[in-house]
Amino acid sequence: MAEVTEMEAILVQHNIAIPSRHILEDLADKFSESVERKGKIVVQFKQIWNWFQNRRYALRAKANKAPGKLNVSSMPRGVDITNQMRNVLPPSAGLKPTHMTGNLMTPTLSVPGVMRSGSDNSYLEFEAKSARDGAWYDVQNFLAHRNLETGDPEVQVRFAGFEVEEVEWINVKRHVRQRSLPCEASECVAVLAGDLVLCFQEGKDQALYFDAKVLDAQRRRHDVRGCRCRFLVRYNHDQSEEIVPLRKICRRPETDYRLQQLHSAANDLANSNQLKNPAPDLASTTPLPQSGASVPVVPPDQKDPSLTALSAPSAQPSSNAASVPGGSA
Known about the structure:
By secondary structure, the protein is an alpha+beta fold. 24% of the residues lie in helices and 21% in strands. It comes from Brassica carinata (Ethiopian mustard).
């Protein structure tokens, strides 16, 4: 689609960063004036912003992936991966709170539900739920914090791609969390029925990310286009249900342990198959020639009948003979 190609080019021009607001608004106005939409559908700024945001993080996630990827199609058909995942418990029943890092200009805050490996000191990214529309947006900056009379901490948030005038005070415990992760094609196995996911809901007036619960997953064989699975989700904010592809789903970071377990299981399976069917030792099966003499290689069905009359033929080296080194393959 020409519009997607145009946005891809703009994203590359801005070094995989979200363009300024006026560029996104100009794109929204331009797309609204297209022949297919003029007078019917108005493309909003938030829709354009969401596309750039999701595409940017999808590219970043792909670039930061470890070299080893899980090949779902190589798993045995008899193995029910989803059942295995249901039987795997997370590393800890309750996620330990950690401290926010990044562009927080005030003392660090403890955020329940955010966890990072102790050996991983990488920068944490967050998302927050806007009180204006109930959708989730990526956090660009934490500007300030305060404590309410109820004891609940709040932070003043500037959302990525929005102006300073659009900052909001957000309840830390309920509406701030570690950023959800766009799914690669091989990660569909980590999305199970009952999971909380962040799902892209497209409507006539807006297209935003909302919390949703996965009700069912229809597994399909992948092809050159990637994941063909479909997921039935129910959005939390309006209780509507929809069947969506994997590209519209962002999984929660707490599901990372499932992929780790699958990688471990795949490696164990490969090692087990290697032990059951070891590669043949050519050195042990190759007959050793006597005194290092060169042995003519002649197919059995092409032997000269006259040779059978010779009771003790001498193996003379020949320029056409194939040399077989002793004890090697």
